[in-house]
Amino acid sequence: MNAHTPLSPAAATGTPIMAVEGVVKRFGGFTALNNVTTSFEAGRLTSIIGPNGAGKSTFFNVLSGQFPPSVGKVFFNGVDITGTPQHRLAHMGIAKSFQITNLFPKLSVHENVRIAAQALQARFDLWRPRAGLKLDETVEALLLRVGLQDRRHESVDTLAHGQQRCLEIAVALACEPKVLLLDEPTAGMSPEEAKDMMDLILKLNAERTVILVEHRMKLVMGISDRIVVLHHGTLLAEGTADDIRRHEEVRRVYLGQSV
Amino acid sequence: MASETSAARGATGSAGGLKGLVALVTRHRVLCALVVLALLPFLTPYEALAVNILIFGLYAMGFNLIFGYAGMLSFGHAALFGLGAYGCGVPIAKFGVPWFLALPMGIAIAGLASVVIGWFAIRSRGIYFAMITLALSQVVYYTTYQWVSLTGGEDGLRGVNVPAIDIFGLHFDMLNPTTKYYVLFVFAAVAIALFSRILNSPFGAVLEALRENEKRAMACGYDIARTRWLAFILSGLFSGFAGALYAIHLSVVPIETLNYFNSAEVLMITLLGGMGTFFGAFIGAYVYIMLQDVVTVVTVHWQLVIGTLFVVLILFFPRGIWGSFLKWVRA
Protein backbone atom coordinates (compact mmCIF):
# COMPACT_ATOMS: atom_id res chain seq x y z
CA MET A 1 0.00 0.00 0.00
CA ASN A 2 1.25 3.42 -0.86
CA ALA A 3 0.76 6.12 1.66
CA HIS A 4 0.49 9.18 -0.58
CA THR A 5 0.19 12.63 0.76
CA PRO A 6 -2.62 14.50 -0.92
CA LEU A 7 -1.27 17.07 -3.39
CA SER A 8 -4.15 19.19 -4.45
CA PRO A 9 -5.47 21.92 -2.16
CA ALA A 10 -8.92 20.59 -2.92
CA ALA A 11 -8.03 17.38 -1.15
CA ALA A 12 -7.09 19.27 1.95
CA THR A 13 -10.51 20.88 2.12
CA GLY A 14 -12.09 17.50 1.58
CA THR A 15 -13.53 18.08 -1.91
CA PRO A 16 -12.76 15.02 -4.00
CA ILE A 17 -10.97 15.75 -7.30
CA MET A 18 -13.51 13.68 -9.21
CA ALA A 19 -16.88 12.34 -8.25
CA VAL A 20 -19.91 10.71 -9.82
CA GLU A 21 -23.38 11.00 -8.36
CA GLY A 22 -26.21 8.61 -9.13
CA VAL A 23 -24.85 7.78 -12.54
CA VAL A 24 -27.05 5.64 -14.77
CA LYS A 25 -26.14 4.76 -18.35
CA ARG A 26 -28.58 3.01 -20.63
CA PHE A 27 -27.96 1.72 -24.14
CA GLY A 28 -31.40 1.11 -25.58
CA GLY A 29 -33.09 -1.22 -23.13
CA PHE A 30 -29.82 -2.31 -21.53
CA THR A 31 -28.66 -0.64 -18.35
CA ALA A 32 -24.87 -0.68 -18.35
CA LEU A 33 -24.51 1.39 -15.19
CA ASN A 34 -27.10 1.54 -12.48
CA ASN A 35 -27.01 4.32 -9.93
CA VAL A 36 -23.30 4.49 -9.22
CA THR A 37 -22.08 7.06 -6.73
CA THR A 38 -18.46 7.33 -5.68
CA SER A 39 -15.66 9.86 -5.40
CA PHE A 40 -11.92 10.02 -5.96
CA GLU A 41 -9.50 11.78 -3.68
CA ALA A 42 -6.72 13.89 -5.12
CA GLY A 43 -3.29 12.32 -5.35
CA ARG A 44 -4.57 8.79 -4.94
CA LEU A 45 -4.39 5.81 -7.23
CA THR A 46 -7.80 4.24 -7.62
CA SER A 47 -8.47 1.10 -9.61
CA ILE A 48 -11.84 0.18 -11.00
CA ILE A 49 -12.16 -3.54 -11.34
CA GLY A 50 -14.86 -6.05 -12.10
CA PRO A 51 -15.53 -9.14 -14.17
CA ASN A 52 -16.39 -8.95 -17.88
CA GLY A 53 -19.50 -6.92 -18.57
CA ALA A 54 -19.41 -5.25 -15.17
CA GLY A 55 -19.69 -1.80 -16.73
CA LYS A 56 -16.06 -0.78 -16.21
CA SER A 57 -15.57 0.68 -19.67
CA THR A 58 -18.93 2.43 -19.56
CA PHE A 59 -17.96 3.93 -16.22
CA PHE A 60 -14.62 5.00 -17.65
CA ASN A 61 -16.29 6.62 -20.66
CA VAL A 62 -18.73 8.52 -18.46
CA LEU A 63 -15.87 9.68 -16.23
CA SER A 64 -13.73 10.76 -19.19
CA GLY A 65 -16.56 12.53 -20.99
CA GLN A 66 -16.70 10.17 -23.95
CA PHE A 67 -20.48 10.20 -23.50
CA PRO A 68 -22.72 11.76 -20.86
CA PRO A 69 -24.63 9.57 -18.38
CA SER A 70 -28.34 8.99 -18.98
CA VAL A 71 -28.98 10.15 -15.41
CA GLY A 72 -26.65 11.55 -12.77
CA LYS A 73 -23.72 13.92 -12.62
CA VAL A 74 -19.95 13.94 -12.93
CA PHE A 75 -17.89 16.42 -10.93
CA PHE A 76 -14.32 17.66 -11.22
CA ASN A 77 -12.99 19.65 -8.27
CA GLY A 78 -16.57 20.24 -7.22
CA VAL A 79 -17.59 21.59 -10.63
CA ASP A 80 -20.30 19.82 -12.57
CA ILE A 81 -18.69 18.61 -15.82
CA THR A 82 -21.54 16.40 -17.03
CA GLY A 83 -21.75 16.74 -20.82
CA THR A 84 -18.68 18.97 -21.15
CA PRO A 85 -16.99 18.34 -24.52
CA GLN A 86 -13.86 16.22 -24.29
CA HIS A 87 -11.46 18.79 -25.66
CA ARG A 88 -12.47 21.13 -22.86
CA LEU A 89 -11.94 18.43 -20.25
CA ALA A 90 -8.38 18.06 -21.53
CA HIS A 91 -7.78 21.74 -20.81
CA MET A 92 -9.34 21.45 -17.36
CA GLY A 93 -6.76 18.79 -16.54
CA ILE A 94 -8.38 15.45 -17.27
CA ALA A 95 -6.39 13.25 -19.64
CA LYS A 96 -7.11 9.74 -20.73
CA SER A 97 -5.57 6.82 -22.51
CA PHE A 98 -7.63 4.46 -24.59
CA GLN A 99 -8.08 0.74 -24.14
CA ILE A 100 -7.40 0.11 -27.80
CA THR A 101 -4.23 1.95 -28.79
CA ASN A 102 -5.32 5.24 -30.24
CA LEU A 103 -2.46 7.29 -31.63
CA PHE A 104 -1.53 9.18 -34.81
CA PRO A 105 -0.27 6.11 -36.68
CA LYS A 106 1.57 7.70 -39.60
CA LEU A 107 3.35 10.33 -37.55
CA SER A 108 6.60 9.83 -35.68
CA VAL A 109 6.80 9.07 -31.97
CA HIS A 110 8.13 12.57 -31.37
CA GLU A 111 5.39 14.21 -33.44
CA ASN A 112 2.68 12.28 -31.59
CA VAL A 113 3.76 13.74 -28.28
CA ARG A 114 4.52 17.14 -29.81
CA ILE A 115 1.01 17.53 -31.20
CA ALA A 116 -0.44 16.53 -27.84
CA ALA A 117 1.77 19.08 -26.04
CA GLN A 118 0.97 21.76 -28.61
CA ALA A 119 -2.71 21.67 -27.58
CA LEU A 120 -1.81 23.69 -24.48
CA GLN A 121 -0.21 26.48 -26.51
CA ALA A 122 -1.47 26.79 -30.04
CA ARG A 123 -4.65 25.40 -31.49
CA PHE A 124 -5.66 27.96 -34.12
CA ASP A 125 -2.33 29.62 -34.80
CA LEU A 126 -1.95 29.93 -38.56
CA TRP A 127 1.08 32.14 -38.68
CA ARG A 128 4.05 31.13 -36.54
CA PRO A 129 6.21 28.24 -37.76
CA ARG A 130 5.38 25.26 -35.58
CA ALA A 131 9.05 24.71 -34.79
CA GLY A 132 9.00 28.09 -33.01
CA LEU A 133 6.84 26.72 -30.20
CA LYS A 134 9.93 25.20 -28.56
CA LEU A 135 8.22 22.04 -27.38
CA ASP A 136 11.22 19.76 -27.93
CA GLU A 137 12.31 19.82 -24.30
CA THR A 138 8.84 18.93 -23.04
CA VAL A 139 8.55 16.15 -25.59
CA GLU A 140 11.98 14.71 -24.77
CA ALA A 141 11.19 14.71 -21.04
CA LEU A 142 7.95 12.83 -21.67
CA LEU A 143 9.62 10.29 -23.96
CA LEU A 144 12.31 9.72 -21.36
CA ARG A 145 9.60 9.24 -18.76
CA VAL A 146 8.04 6.33 -20.63
CA GLY A 147 11.35 5.02 -22.01
CA LEU A 148 10.83 5.81 -25.69
CA GLN A 149 13.61 8.36 -26.14
CA ASP A 150 15.52 6.07 -28.55
CA ARG A 151 12.52 5.59 -30.81
CA ARG A 152 11.68 9.26 -31.24
CA HIS A 153 12.04 9.41 -35.04
CA GLU A 154 10.30 6.15 -35.73
CA SER A 155 6.82 5.95 -37.12
CA VAL A 156 4.22 4.75 -34.62
CA ASP A 157 3.13 1.75 -36.68
CA THR A 158 6.64 0.29 -36.42
CA LEU A 159 6.54 0.18 -32.59
CA ALA A 160 5.86 -2.98 -30.61
CA HIS A 161 2.50 -3.18 -28.86
CA GLY A 162 3.94 -2.52 -25.41
CA GLN A 163 5.78 0.54 -26.68
CA GLN A 164 2.61 1.89 -28.25
CA ARG A 165 0.91 1.53 -24.87
CA CYS A 166 3.73 3.55 -23.31
CA LEU A 167 3.39 6.18 -26.00
CA GLU A 168 -0.31 6.40 -25.17
CA ILE A 169 0.68 7.37 -21.66
CA ALA A 170 3.19 9.97 -22.87
CA VAL A 171 0.56 11.50 -25.16
CA ALA A 172 -1.94 11.62 -22.31
CA LEU A 173 0.64 13.24 -20.02
CA ALA A 174 1.45 15.92 -22.58
CA CYS A 175 -1.54 18.04 -21.59
CA GLU A 176 -0.19 18.18 -18.03
CA PRO A 177 -3.25 16.56 -16.46
CA LYS A 178 -4.26 16.71 -12.83
CA VAL A 179 -6.15 13.48 -13.30
CA LEU A 180 -4.90 10.66 -15.48
CA LEU A 181 -7.59 8.22 -16.57
CA LEU A 182 -6.27 4.93 -17.92
CA ASP A 183 -8.48 2.37 -19.61
CA GLU A 184 -6.85 -1.06 -19.22
CA PRO A 185 -3.30 0.25 -19.64
CA THR A 186 -1.94 -3.30 -19.71
CA ALA A 187 -4.37 -4.65 -22.31
CA GLY A 188 -2.62 -7.17 -24.54
CA MET A 189 0.65 -6.98 -22.61
CA SER A 190 2.83 -9.84 -21.43
CA PRO A 191 3.07 -10.28 -17.63
CA GLU A 192 6.55 -8.66 -17.64
CA GLU A 193 5.39 -5.69 -19.70
CA ALA A 194 2.33 -5.34 -17.47
CA LYS A 195 4.58 -5.28 -14.40
CA ASP A 196 6.70 -2.50 -15.95
CA MET A 197 3.58 -0.56 -16.85
CA MET A 198 2.32 -0.78 -13.26
CA ASP A 199 5.69 0.48 -12.00
CA LEU A 200 5.41 3.39 -14.40
CA ILE A 201 1.87 4.16 -13.28
CA LEU A 202 2.98 4.14 -9.67
CA LYS A 203 5.67 6.70 -10.50
CA LEU A 204 3.20 8.87 -12.36
CA ASN A 205 0.86 8.72 -9.40
CA ALA A 206 3.47 10.51 -7.30
CA GLU A 207 2.57 13.72 -9.16
CA ARG A 208 -1.09 13.34 -9.98
CA THR A 209 -4.31 11.50 -9.38
CA VAL A 210 -4.62 8.26 -11.32
CA ILE A 211 -7.83 6.39 -11.95
CA LEU A 212 -7.49 3.20 -13.93
CA VAL A 213 -9.73 0.46 -15.16
CA GLU A 214 -8.26 -3.01 -15.02
CA HIS A 215 -9.56 -6.43 -15.84
CA ARG A 216 -6.75 -8.35 -14.18
CA MET A 217 -7.39 -7.88 -10.48
CA LYS A 218 -4.04 -9.14 -9.27
CA LEU A 219 -2.14 -6.45 -11.13
CA VAL A 220 -3.71 -3.61 -9.21
CA MET A 221 -4.08 -5.11 -5.75
CA GLY A 222 -0.54 -4.25 -4.73
CA ILE A 223 -0.38 -0.69 -5.99
CA SER A 224 -3.84 0.82 -5.52
CA ASP A 225 -4.73 3.11 -2.64
CA ARG A 226 -8.34 2.29 -3.21
CA ILE A 227 -10.28 -0.20 -5.27
CA VAL A 228 -13.78 0.15 -6.66
CA VAL A 229 -15.49 -3.09 -7.68
CA LEU A 230 -18.28 -2.97 -10.24
CA HIS A 231 -20.59 -5.87 -10.95
CA HIS A 232 -23.58 -5.91 -13.32
CA GLY A 233 -23.41 -2.14 -13.57
CA THR A 234 -23.65 -1.49 -9.84
CA LEU A 235 -21.04 -0.60 -7.29
CA LEU A 236 -20.38 -3.81 -5.39
CA ALA A 237 -17.64 -2.72 -3.02
CA GLU A 238 -15.01 -0.05 -2.48
CA GLY A 239 -12.09 0.23 -0.13
CA THR A 240 -8.47 -0.72 0.31
CA ALA A 241 -7.07 -3.90 -1.20
CA ASP A 242 -7.45 -5.60 2.17
CA ASP A 243 -11.08 -4.57 2.45
CA ILE A 244 -11.73 -5.95 -1.01
CA ARG A 245 -9.94 -9.22 -0.27
CA ARG A 246 -12.14 -9.76 2.76
CA HIS A 247 -15.35 -8.76 1.03
CA GLU A 248 -17.75 -11.71 0.81
CA GLU A 249 -19.62 -10.51 -2.27
CA VAL A 250 -16.44 -9.80 -4.17
CA ARG A 251 -15.13 -13.26 -3.39
CA ARG A 252 -18.35 -14.73 -4.72
CA VAL A 253 -18.21 -12.69 -7.93
CA TYR A 254 -14.61 -13.61 -8.56
CA LEU A 255 -15.38 -17.25 -7.77
CA GLY A 256 -12.43 -19.52 -8.24
CA GLN A 257 -9.90 -16.72 -8.40
CA SER A 258 -7.65 -15.97 -5.50
CA VAL A 259 -8.56 -12.49 -4.46
CA MET B 1 2.99 17.31 -45.11
CA ALA B 2 4.09 15.05 -42.32
CA SER B 3 5.67 12.63 -44.72
CA GLU B 4 7.29 15.53 -46.54
CA THR B 5 8.96 16.89 -43.42
CA SER B 6 10.07 13.48 -42.22
CA ALA B 7 11.66 12.89 -45.62
CA ALA B 8 13.56 16.12 -45.25
CA ARG B 9 14.92 14.93 -41.94
CA GLY B 10 15.83 11.48 -43.18
CA ALA B 11 17.74 12.76 -46.16
CA THR B 12 20.02 15.17 -44.34
CA GLY B 13 21.93 12.27 -42.88
CA SER B 14 21.85 9.89 -45.83
CA ALA B 15 23.77 10.19 -49.07
CA GLY B 16 22.37 12.73 -51.55
CA GLY B 17 21.03 11.41 -54.84
CA LEU B 18 17.38 11.65 -55.73
CA LYS B 19 16.32 11.41 -52.11
CA GLY B 20 18.45 14.40 -51.21
CA LEU B 21 17.13 16.34 -54.16
CA VAL B 22 13.52 15.65 -53.15
CA ALA B 23 14.34 16.69 -49.60
CA LEU B 24 15.90 19.92 -50.87
CA VAL B 25 12.90 20.63 -53.11
CA THR B 26 10.56 19.93 -50.18
CA ARG B 27 12.46 22.25 -47.88
CA HIS B 28 12.31 25.08 -50.39
CA ARG B 29 8.90 24.17 -51.70
CA VAL B 30 7.59 27.71 -52.25
CA LEU B 31 10.68 28.77 -54.19
CA CYS B 32 10.63 25.61 -56.29
CA ALA B 33 6.93 25.94 -57.05
CA LEU B 34 7.42 29.57 -58.10
CA VAL B 35 10.42 28.83 -60.32
CA VAL B 36 8.50 26.14 -62.18
CA LEU B 37 5.38 28.28 -62.45
CA ALA B 38 7.47 31.19 -63.75
CA LEU B 39 8.60 28.91 -66.59
CA LEU B 40 5.11 27.55 -67.19
CA PRO B 41 4.30 29.68 -70.29
CA PHE B 42 7.27 27.98 -72.00
CA LEU B 43 5.94 24.53 -71.08
CA THR B 44 2.49 25.03 -72.59
CA PRO B 45 1.45 25.49 -76.23
CA TYR B 46 -0.15 28.92 -75.55
CA GLU B 47 -0.40 31.37 -72.64
CA ALA B 48 -4.13 31.02 -71.95
CA LEU B 49 -3.49 27.39 -71.09
CA ALA B 50 -0.74 28.41 -68.68
CA VAL B 51 -3.15 30.83 -66.99
CA ASN B 52 -5.74 28.05 -66.66
CA ILE B 53 -3.15 25.74 -65.11
CA LEU B 54 -2.10 28.46 -62.68
CA ILE B 55 -5.68 29.20 -61.62
CA PHE B 56 -6.85 25.59 -61.38
CA GLY B 57 -3.63 24.73 -59.54
CA LEU B 58 -4.47 27.44 -57.02
CA TYR B 59 -8.04 26.18 -56.79
CA ALA B 60 -6.83 22.59 -56.25
CA MET B 61 -4.35 23.84 -53.63
CA GLY B 62 -7.24 25.33 -51.63
CA PHE B 63 -9.30 22.18 -52.12
CA ASN B 64 -6.34 20.05 -51.05
CA LEU B 65 -6.28 21.77 -47.66
CA ILE B 66 -9.65 20.30 -46.79
CA PHE B 67 -9.41 17.06 -48.80
CA GLY B 68 -5.76 16.02 -48.63
CA TYR B 69 -4.62 17.60 -45.39
CA ALA B 70 -7.74 17.55 -43.22
CA GLY B 71 -9.26 14.42 -44.78
CA MET B 72 -12.71 15.79 -45.66
CA LEU B 73 -14.13 15.22 -49.15
CA SER B 74 -16.00 18.35 -50.18
CA PHE B 75 -18.16 18.05 -53.24
CA GLY B 76 -19.20 21.65 -53.23
CA HIS B 77 -16.06 23.63 -53.88
CA ALA B 78 -17.47 24.84 -57.20
CA ALA B 79 -19.68 27.14 -55.11
CA LEU B 80 -16.62 28.69 -53.46
CA PHE B 81 -14.63 28.99 -56.67
CA GLY B 82 -17.69 30.27 -58.55
CA LEU B 83 -18.66 32.78 -55.87
CA GLY B 84 -15.10 34.05 -55.90
CA ALA B 85 -15.49 34.57 -59.65
CA TYR B 86 -18.93 36.20 -59.45
CA GLY B 87 -17.99 38.12 -56.32
CA CYS B 88 -15.13 39.71 -58.21
CA GLY B 89 -16.83 39.84 -61.62
CA VAL B 90 -20.20 41.38 -60.68
CA PRO B 91 -18.71 44.50 -59.04
CA ILE B 92 -16.50 45.06 -62.09
CA ALA B 93 -19.13 44.34 -64.75
CA LYS B 94 -22.21 45.83 -63.10
CA PHE B 95 -20.89 48.55 -60.80
CA GLY B 96 -17.62 49.59 -62.38
CA VAL B 97 -15.64 48.79 -59.24
CA PRO B 98 -11.85 48.83 -59.86
CA TRP B 99 -10.13 45.44 -59.91
CA PHE B 100 -8.12 45.99 -56.71
CA LEU B 101 -11.37 46.34 -54.74
CA ALA B 102 -13.27 43.69 -56.69
CA LEU B 103 -10.61 41.04 -56.12
CA PRO B 104 -10.84 41.16 -52.29
CA MET B 105 -14.63 41.35 -52.63
CA GLY B 106 -14.59 38.07 -54.53
CA ILE B 107 -12.43 36.47 -51.85
CA ALA B 108 -14.67 37.85 -49.10
CA ILE B 109 -17.86 36.53 -50.69
CA ALA B 110 -16.31 33.08 -51.16
CA GLY B 111 -15.13 33.28 -47.54
CA LEU B 112 -18.60 34.21 -46.35
CA ALA B 113 -20.10 31.32 -48.31
CA SER B 114 -17.60 28.90 -46.79
CA VAL B 115 -18.47 30.17 -43.31
CA VAL B 116 -22.13 29.31 -43.98
CA ILE B 117 -21.63 26.08 -45.97
CA GLY B 118 -18.92 24.96 -43.55
CA TRP B 119 -21.11 25.61 -40.53
CA PHE B 120 -23.66 23.11 -41.83
CA ALA B 121 -21.25 20.63 -43.35
CA ILE B 122 -18.74 20.12 -40.52
CA ARG B 123 -21.44 18.40 -38.48
CA SER B 124 -21.25 15.38 -40.75
CA ARG B 125 -18.59 12.96 -41.92
CA GLY B 126 -17.59 11.06 -45.02
CA ILE B 127 -20.27 10.65 -47.67
CA TYR B 128 -22.71 12.84 -45.73
CA PHE B 129 -20.20 15.68 -45.71
CA ALA B 130 -19.84 15.27 -49.49
CA MET B 131 -23.63 15.26 -49.95
CA ILE B 132 -24.27 18.34 -47.81
CA THR B 133 -21.56 20.35 -49.55
CA LEU B 134 -22.94 19.21 -52.91
CA ALA B 135 -26.51 20.18 -51.95
CA LEU B 136 -25.52 23.62 -50.68
CA SER B 137 -23.38 24.30 -53.75
CA GLN B 138 -26.40 23.45 -55.91
CA VAL B 139 -28.38 26.06 -53.97
CA VAL B 140 -25.72 28.60 -54.92
CA TYR B 141 -25.80 27.38 -58.53
CA TYR B 142 -29.56 27.75 -58.95
CA THR B 143 -29.73 31.06 -57.13
CA THR B 144 -27.10 32.46 -59.46
CA TYR B 145 -28.84 30.87 -62.43
CA GLN B 146 -32.16 32.56 -61.57
CA TRP B 147 -30.77 35.97 -60.61
CA VAL B 148 -30.36 37.02 -64.23
CA SER B 149 -30.29 40.77 -63.65
CA LEU B 150 -27.19 40.53 -61.51
CA THR B 151 -25.40 37.45 -62.78
CA GLY B 152 -26.46 37.10 -66.41
CA GLY B 153 -28.03 33.74 -65.56
CA GLU B 154 -27.52 30.98 -68.11
CA ASP B 155 -25.44 33.19 -70.42
CA GLY B 156 -22.94 33.85 -67.69
CA LEU B 157 -21.66 37.21 -66.55
CA ARG B 158 -20.27 39.34 -69.34
CA GLY B 159 -18.17 42.45 -69.33
CA VAL B 160 -15.67 41.71 -66.58
CA ASN B 161 -13.21 43.94 -68.34
CA VAL B 162 -9.86 44.57 -66.76
CA PRO B 163 -7.88 45.76 -69.78
CA ALA B 164 -4.95 47.01 -67.73
CA ILE B 165 -3.63 46.87 -64.21
CA ASP B 166 -1.78 49.85 -62.80
CA ILE B 167 0.08 49.15 -59.63
CA PHE B 168 2.92 51.01 -57.88
CA GLY B 169 3.26 53.30 -60.90
CA LEU B 170 3.67 50.37 -63.26
CA HIS B 171 1.33 49.76 -66.16
CA PHE B 172 0.46 46.19 -67.16
CA ASP B 173 -1.45 45.53 -70.34
CA MET B 174 -3.78 42.63 -69.51
CA LEU B 175 -4.66 42.14 -73.16
CA ASN B 176 -1.15 40.85 -73.71
CA PRO B 177 -1.33 37.14 -72.75
CA THR B 178 2.23 36.95 -71.44
CA THR B 179 1.84 40.06 -69.30
CA LYS B 180 -1.47 38.76 -68.01
CA TYR B 181 0.11 35.47 -67.03
CA TYR B 182 2.86 37.14 -65.03
CA VAL B 183 0.50 39.55 -63.28
CA LEU B 184 -1.67 36.63 -62.20
CA PHE B 185 1.49 34.71 -61.32
CA VAL B 186 2.41 37.40 -58.78
CA PHE B 187 -1.02 37.06 -57.14
CA ALA B 188 -0.69 33.28 -57.10
CA ALA B 189 2.79 33.55 -55.59
CA VAL B 190 1.39 35.42 -52.58
CA ALA B 191 -1.27 32.73 -52.12
CA ILE B 192 1.27 29.90 -52.44
CA ALA B 193 3.58 31.46 -49.85
CA LEU B 194 0.64 31.96 -47.47
CA PHE B 195 -0.52 28.41 -48.01
CA SER B 196 2.90 26.99 -47.23
CA ARG B 197 3.03 29.12 -44.10
CA ILE B 198 -0.32 27.73 -42.93
CA LEU B 199 0.78 24.14 -43.55
CA ASN B 200 3.89 24.79 -41.51
CA SER B 201 2.01 26.48 -38.66
CA PRO B 202 0.77 24.79 -35.49
CA PHE B 203 -2.67 24.73 -37.11
CA GLY B 204 -1.18 22.70 -39.97
CA ALA B 205 -0.10 20.12 -37.40
CA VAL B 206 -3.61 20.05 -35.93
CA LEU B 207 -5.02 19.31 -39.39
CA GLU B 208 -2.71 16.32 -39.71
CA ALA B 209 -3.68 15.13 -36.25
CA LEU B 210 -7.32 15.44 -37.21
CA ARG B 211 -6.85 13.42 -40.37
CA GLU B 212 -4.82 10.74 -38.56
CA ASN B 213 -7.06 10.26 -35.54
CA GLU B 214 -9.94 12.51 -34.69
CA LYS B 215 -10.75 10.78 -31.42
CA ARG B 216 -7.23 11.15 -30.12
CA ALA B 217 -6.99 14.76 -31.28
CA MET B 218 -10.14 15.50 -29.31
CA ALA B 219 -8.77 13.81 -26.18
CA CYS B 220 -5.61 15.91 -26.58
CA GLY B 221 -7.71 19.04 -26.25
CA TYR B 222 -8.43 20.07 -29.83
CA ASP B 223 -11.88 21.38 -30.65
CA ILE B 224 -12.62 19.22 -33.68
CA ALA B 225 -15.67 21.11 -34.91
CA ARG B 226 -13.95 24.51 -34.87
CA THR B 227 -10.78 23.11 -36.42
CA ARG B 228 -12.77 21.58 -39.26
CA TRP B 229 -14.71 24.80 -39.72
CA LEU B 230 -11.60 26.96 -39.87
CA ALA B 231 -9.99 24.55 -42.34
CA PHE B 232 -13.08 24.73 -44.53
CA ILE B 233 -13.10 28.54 -44.44
CA LEU B 234 -9.39 28.75 -45.30
CA SER B 235 -9.91 26.31 -48.12
CA GLY B 236 -12.81 28.44 -49.34
CA LEU B 237 -10.71 31.62 -49.27
CA PHE B 238 -8.03 30.08 -51.47
CA SER B 239 -10.61 28.61 -53.84
CA GLY B 240 -12.42 31.94 -53.99
CA PHE B 241 -9.15 33.72 -54.74
CA ALA B 242 -8.60 31.33 -57.67
CA GLY B 243 -12.16 32.04 -58.83
CA ALA B 244 -11.66 35.80 -58.65
CA LEU B 245 -8.51 35.53 -60.77
CA TYR B 246 -10.46 33.36 -63.21
CA ALA B 247 -13.03 36.13 -63.71
CA ILE B 248 -10.27 38.65 -64.46
CA HIS B 249 -8.58 36.17 -66.77
CA LEU B 250 -11.64 35.28 -68.86
CA SER B 251 -13.39 38.69 -68.80
CA VAL B 252 -16.58 36.68 -68.39
CA VAL B 253 -17.85 34.33 -65.69
CA PRO B 254 -19.51 31.26 -67.20
CA ILE B 255 -22.30 29.72 -65.10
CA GLU B 256 -20.34 26.46 -65.40
CA THR B 257 -17.90 27.71 -62.75
CA LEU B 258 -20.67 26.94 -60.23
CA ASN B 259 -21.64 23.60 -61.74
CA TYR B 260 -21.06 20.46 -59.72
CA PHE B 261 -18.86 19.27 -62.54
CA ASN B 262 -16.38 21.92 -61.49
CA SER B 263 -16.33 20.36 -57.99
CA ALA B 264 -15.57 16.99 -59.55
CA GLU B 265 -12.83 18.49 -61.71
CA VAL B 266 -10.91 19.92 -58.78
CA LEU B 267 -11.20 16.57 -57.03
CA MET B 268 -9.73 14.85 -60.08
CA ILE B 269 -6.94 17.38 -60.41
CA THR B 270 -6.03 16.88 -56.76
CA LEU B 271 -6.15 13.10 -57.01
CA LEU B 272 -4.15 13.16 -60.23
CA GLY B 273 -1.39 15.29 -58.73
CA GLY B 274 -1.41 13.65 -55.30
CA MET B 275 -3.72 14.49 -52.41
CA GLY B 276 -2.07 15.90 -49.33
CA THR B 277 1.10 16.88 -51.16
CA PHE B 278 2.26 20.44 -51.70
CA PHE B 279 3.11 20.17 -55.41
CA GLY B 280 0.28 17.78 -56.25
CA ALA B 281 -2.26 20.51 -56.99
CA PHE B 282 -0.16 22.19 -59.67
CA ILE B 283 1.16 18.96 -61.18
CA GLY B 284 -2.41 17.69 -61.34
CA ALA B 285 -3.62 20.90 -62.95
CA TYR B 286 -0.83 20.78 -65.52
CA VAL B 287 -1.45 17.19 -66.58
CA TYR B 288 -5.24 17.50 -66.50
CA ILE B 289 -5.44 20.69 -68.53
CA MET B 290 -2.77 19.64 -71.03
CA LEU B 291 -4.55 16.33 -71.49
CA GLN B 292 -7.87 18.10 -71.96
CA ASP B 293 -6.28 20.37 -74.57
CA VAL B 294 -4.91 17.43 -76.52
CA VAL B 295 -7.95 15.18 -76.24
CA THR B 296 -10.52 17.81 -77.24
CA VAL B 297 -8.67 18.26 -80.52
CA VAL B 298 -9.10 14.56 -81.29
CA THR B 299 -12.59 13.91 -79.90
CA VAL B 300 -15.53 15.75 -78.35
CA HIS B 301 -15.97 12.95 -75.81
CA TRP B 302 -13.60 14.49 -73.29
CA GLN B 303 -15.87 13.48 -70.42
CA LEU B 304 -15.52 9.84 -71.43
CA VAL B 305 -11.76 10.18 -71.10
CA ILE B 306 -12.12 11.88 -67.72
CA GLY B 307 -14.40 9.11 -66.47
CA THR B 308 -11.88 6.46 -67.45
CA LEU B 309 -9.04 8.47 -65.96
CA PHE B 310 -10.94 8.82 -62.69
CA VAL B 311 -11.57 5.09 -62.37
CA VAL B 312 -7.96 4.25 -63.18
CA LEU B 313 -6.74 6.80 -60.64
CA ILE B 314 -8.90 5.49 -57.81
CA LEU B 315 -8.11 1.84 -58.51
CA PHE B 316 -4.42 1.84 -59.38
CA PHE B 317 -3.03 5.23 -58.57
CA PRO B 318 -4.59 6.56 -55.37
CA ARG B 319 -1.47 8.53 -54.45
CA GLY B 320 -1.43 10.45 -57.71
CA ILE B 321 1.63 11.50 -59.67
CA TRP B 322 3.62 13.36 -57.03
CA GLY B 323 2.44 11.08 -54.21
CA SER B 324 3.57 7.96 -56.12
CA PHE B 325 6.86 9.61 -57.03
CA LEU B 326 7.54 10.47 -53.37
CA LYS B 327 6.77 6.92 -52.32
CA TRP B 328 9.03 5.51 -55.02
CA VAL B 329 11.91 7.81 -54.04
CA ARG B 330 11.63 6.91 -50.37
CA ALA B 331 11.27 3.18 -50.88
The low-confidence runs of chain B, each spanning 5 or more residues with pLDDT under 50, are 1-15
What top-tier CATH class of the domain at 1-84 and 216-259 in chain A fits best?
Answer: Alpha Beta
Summarize the main sheet of chain A. 6 strands, mixed
Based on DSSP secondary structure assignment, what is the total number of beta strands of chain A? 10
As residue ranges, the low-confidence spans of chain A are 1-12
Structure classification of chain B: mainly alpha
Explain what this protein looks like in three dimensions.
The complex is a heterodimer of chains A (259) and B (331). Chain A is an alpha/beta fold. Chain A has helices at 9-13, 56-63, 86-92, 109-118, 136-146, 161-173, 191-205, 217-221, 241-246, 248-253, and strands spanning 18-27, 30-40, 45-49, 71-76, 79-80, 94-97, 179-183, 209-213, 226-231, 234-239. Chain A has a 6-stranded mixed β-sheet with strand order 6-7-8-3-9-10, sandwiched between helices. In chain A, β7 (179-183), α7 (191-205) and β8 form a beta-alpha-beta unit. Chain A is globular and about 55 Å long. The model of chain A is unreliable at 1-12 (pLDDT under 50). Chain B is mainly α. Chain B has a domain at 34-255. In chain B, a hairpin with a 2-residue loop joins β1 and β2. Classes of the chains: A alpha/beta (259), B mainly alpha (331). At the A-B interface, α3 and α4 of A face α1, α9, α10, α11 and α12 of B.
List keywords for this structure.
heterodimer, A: 259 residues, alpha/beta, 4-stranded antiparallel β-sheet, disordered N terminus, B: 331 residues
